[in-house]
Amino acid sequence: MFIRFKPQPPSDAAPITTADASSIHAIEIKQADGILRLNKSSDQWLVSGTLTLPADEYRVKEILRLLSLPSDTQYAASEVDLAELGLDPATTLVTFNDVDVALGATHPLDQKRYVLVDNTVHLVDSFQVPTLTVESSELVSKKLIQQVSALIRIDTGDYLLEKQEGSRGPR
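Below the sequence we write its predicted structure tokens.
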């Protein structure tokens, strides 16, 4: 058996927010079991908590992608029952600087996710919504060495290897 999926044509739908991901410097994820904060320091995202550690760049980009998800359908929040849609209270609330994106339930027929932004309920494709967690270990970078730095000294206790000014390395 052979299954072939056709790529979907690009959506003409407007994004759920007009916020520019490059202007975001703080992200807060609230769920029933806790709050997770990410802050941008110069060009690096950091997971704030007991320890402040570098965030996984891919995971942060996935979270920032929430801002530009295409909205298939929109409803005024005053015209729907937010509790019935899983938006009052929301299962997950993501705050980008001062923009709140509330994630609610999934529509039972087409599996689209209800998302509340600025008093407007949007329906978005569920598969485009990243899995969010408030476990900081899930968002911390897994790189063993975060920054490339010049090695200038190795001290083993018995031996000392040190780079001398002007040396170019072994000959």
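The radius of gyration is 22 Å.
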